[in-house]
């Protein structure tokens, strides 16, 4: 397997801006592809530990099916401090930002580019950063696609395991065990070899170690599932969220736990069959299709073609259909009339290869679980 340089910017004649944004927590390297369109959000990506925006998202954005999405939205890729390609070692005495502080750098990046709102796409550590950003700035986030998110702080058992593992294994091995499940590590030698080579040779090891330490020191997101009739000010994501995890990912339990803590009327859990720790690398076409449905449920891209996923006749539909109706902002400057075309666009969000509905804590509100 070869991690190719990004080519999707050459498919269309779009502007590409590469910049280092100054923040109180260090310089943040970012790439803006395309021009933000009026009040339409941009797609904002954030990578996991051991990766940067290229190695994390190139397989997804280079895929031909993704071009239909990038035609409609500008894309901003953020690299955590010191994680970009060719990064020099961070200055001696530099205090690496906490995960909370990293989420605040997102605000400054968006201000730098004059962006008002985003649809986030992130994985692992990046998913935590964008979720934290959405909790603190709900007016700036219209939707989130979160892969392998862990909303909990690292427990003392995890901390001890990392310490013991660190005695016997190098940093690249620790990162590999975070990104991939045991089955992949044992069976997919080409994939693991490619990423191990990247982590070892392309990432600045000192900088990476600081990013890993920051992620392992994260706090709980402290999100809580709203209960009908309960506290209306409960801390939770206000925007639609699609949680994604491969069925052999080491993050399965963490993602399922996060799903149980979020609003079931705005959250969908997508568990991808025969998929490992990096769905955007392992099954990019399926993931892109799910992202298309998700964006359609928010009222965008109603004419996008759908080819791989089929609409389920058994899913409740109430949760995903409500993604559009429960958006935190009215977007009065964009028509929301209930035309037949819009209704068709909404129905596209009620999809799966095998779809099941689960009761929430009070057995009255449905949450959605998809598998493909």
From TrEMBL:
One of its GO terms (biological process) is cell differentiation. GO terms for cellular component: cytoplasm. InterPro entries: AB_hydrolase_fold (IPR029058), NDRG (IPR004142). The keyword Cytoplasm applies. Residues 328-337 have a biased composition (Basic residues). Pfam families: Ndr. Keywords: Cytoplasm, Developmental protein, Differentiation, Neurogenesis, Wnt signaling pathway. SUPFAM superfamilies: alpha/beta-Hydrolases (SSF53474). Residues 315-372 are annotated as: Disordered. It is found in: Cytoplasm. The keyword Cytoplasm applies. Belongs to the NDRG family. This is Protein NDRG2. It comes from Chanos chanos. The gene is ndrg1b.
């Amino acid at each position: 397997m070869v991690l190719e340089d990004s080519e999707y910017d050459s498919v269309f004649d779009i502007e590409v801006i590469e910049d280092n944004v100054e923040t109180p927590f260090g310089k943040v390297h970012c790439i803006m592809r395309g021009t933000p369109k009026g009040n339409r959000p941009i797609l904002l990506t954030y990578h996991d530990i051991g990766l940067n925006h290229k190695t994390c998202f190139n397989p997804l954005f280079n895929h031909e099916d993704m071009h239909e999405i990038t035609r409609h939205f500008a894309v901003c890729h953020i690299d955590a401090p010191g994680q970009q390609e060719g990064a020099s070692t961070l200055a001696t005495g530099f205090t690496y930002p906490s995960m909370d502080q990293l989420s605040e750098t997102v605000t400054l990046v968006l201000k730098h580019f004059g962006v008002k709102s985003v649809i986030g796409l992130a994985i692992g550590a990046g998913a935590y950063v964008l979720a934290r950003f959405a909790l603190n700035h709900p007016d700036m986030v219209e939707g989130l696609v979160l892969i392998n998110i862990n909303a909990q702080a690292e427990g003392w058992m995890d901390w001890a395991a990392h310490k013991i593992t660190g005695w016997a294994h190098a940093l690249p091995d620790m990162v590999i065990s975070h990104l991939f499940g045991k089955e992949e590590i044992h069976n997919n030698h080409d994939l693991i070899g490619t990423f191990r080579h990247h982590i070892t040779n392309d990432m600045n090891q000192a900088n990476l170690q600081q990013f890993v330490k920051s992620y392992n020191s994260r706090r709980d997101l402290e999100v809580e599932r709203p209960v009908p009739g309960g506290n209306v000010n409960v801390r939770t994501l206000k925007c639609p969220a699609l949680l994604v995890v491969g069925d052999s990912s080491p993050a399965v339990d963490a993602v399922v736990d996060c799903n149980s803590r979020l609003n079931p009327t705005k959250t969908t859990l997508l568990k991808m069959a025969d998929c490992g720790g990096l769905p955007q690398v392992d099954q990019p076409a399926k993931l892109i299709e799910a992202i298309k449905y998700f964006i359609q449920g928010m009222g965008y891209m109603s004419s996008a073609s759908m080819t791989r996923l089929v609409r389920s006749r058994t899913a409740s539909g109430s949760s995903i259909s409500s993604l559009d109706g429960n958006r935190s902002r009215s977007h009065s400057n964009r028509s929301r009339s209930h035309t037949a075309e819009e209704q068709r666009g909404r129905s596209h969000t009620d999809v799966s290869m095998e779809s099941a509905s689960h009761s929430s804590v009070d057995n009255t509100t449905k949450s959605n679980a998809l598998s493909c």
